[in-house]
Write a structure and sequence with these properties.
Layout (H helix, E strand, L loop, with lengths): L1 H12 L1 H6 L4 H17 L5 E5 L5 H8 L3 E6 L2 H14 L5 E5 L14 E4 L10 H13 L6 E7 L1 H7 L4 H9 L1 H10 L1 E2 L8 E2 L3 H8 L4 E7 L8 H10 L4 H11 L3 H6 L2 E7 L1
Helix pairs in contact: 4-5, 7-9, 8-9
Length: 272
């Protein structure tokens, strides 16, 4: 069962997911770019749902900024990590922790002032009907006129990696049908190292939501630097004088549709 595989993978991944967004300059791009747009579109106050928020990186930062937050996740270990870190941060009283799935949210209609589902939560729903159900649920619990933030893993990025990373070459030779399926259709069932995932293209994500919300922005979170994280990290660390230029280049290009499509993660921002 796909849900079982996803839950098992992230239970074992554990604290690594808490560290992922800050572990090096490349991964910080996803965090920094997400916050640039969260700051731009979030209401100034209210209650926010962090749906599939894992160990609570965004949840805790939102609570630090004064929001009340509900963190919902499938993985009990992630909720435990989030509780510990929320306590350390002094914001435990501002957060509600709920074990559950984005396909069946245990909340009333029009409950939240903003809804987040970041880092590829919908990507782990491989079957289309499950993704559509989650899209319905995420918009159902959002108040009218309020913002929705969804980020997913990009399909073209993975297809590009397949030409340069040896692990993908092994799939190409030994599992050609599965290789073509996840590169072209986006469906990967978790047989060769990573957990089950659906890799999105840009139009597909918009189509899953555009009858429910007004799409405001599509953003490439790692943008033009997606194809070569190691090169970005080397330049960032070894040439501090270029950091401002790199960030300006990222901001100048991250909303270009071609850049969005090829980004490792990209984000949809919409309004109900």
């Amino acid at each position: 069962m796909i849900e079982h595989k996803v839950k098992k993978f992230y239970t074992e991944y554990g604290i690594k997911e808490w560290r992922r967004l800050v572990k090096d300059p490349f991964h910080q791009l996803e965090w920094k770019t997400s916050w640039l747009y969260l700051d731009r579109y979030l209401p100034r106050k209210g209650t926010i749902l962090d749906a599939g928020g894992g160990p609570g990186r965004y949840t805790i930062e939102l609570a630090k900024r004064g929001y009340k937050v509900v963190l919902l996740d499938l993985v009990p270990k992630f909720l435990d990590i989030a509780k510990r870190n929320a306590k350390k941060a002094g914001v435990l009283d501002r957060i509600e922790f709920v074990e559950g799935t984005v396909e069946d949210l245990p909340f009333d209609d029009n409950t939240f002032d903003a809804v987040l589902s970041l880092g590829g939560v919908l990507s782990h729903l491989v079957k289309k009907e499950k993704r559509l159900r989650a899209a319905d649920e995420l918009t159902r619990v959002l108040k009218p006129g309020k913002p929705l933030f969804i980020s997913v893993i990009g399909r073209i990025h993975v297809s590009m990696l397949a030409t340069i990373k040896p692990g993908y070459h092994d799939d190409m030779i030994n599992h050609p049908r599965a290789f073509m399926k996840y590169c072209v259709q986006g469906d990967y069932y978790g047989n060769f190292g990573f957990t089950p995932v659906h890799l999105y293209d840009v139009d597909e994500l918009e189509n899953e939501f555009n009858d429910k919300i007004e799409v405001l922005k599509m953003v490439g979170l790692e943008g033009v630097f997606s194809p070569n994280p190691k090169a970005y990290n080397r330049m960032y660390k070894n040439k501090p004088e270029t950091r401002d230029i790199l960030w300006k280049l990222h901001l100048a290009t991250c909303e270009d549709k071609c850049v969005v499509a090829t980004s490792q993660h990209f984000m949809l921002i919409g309004k109900k």
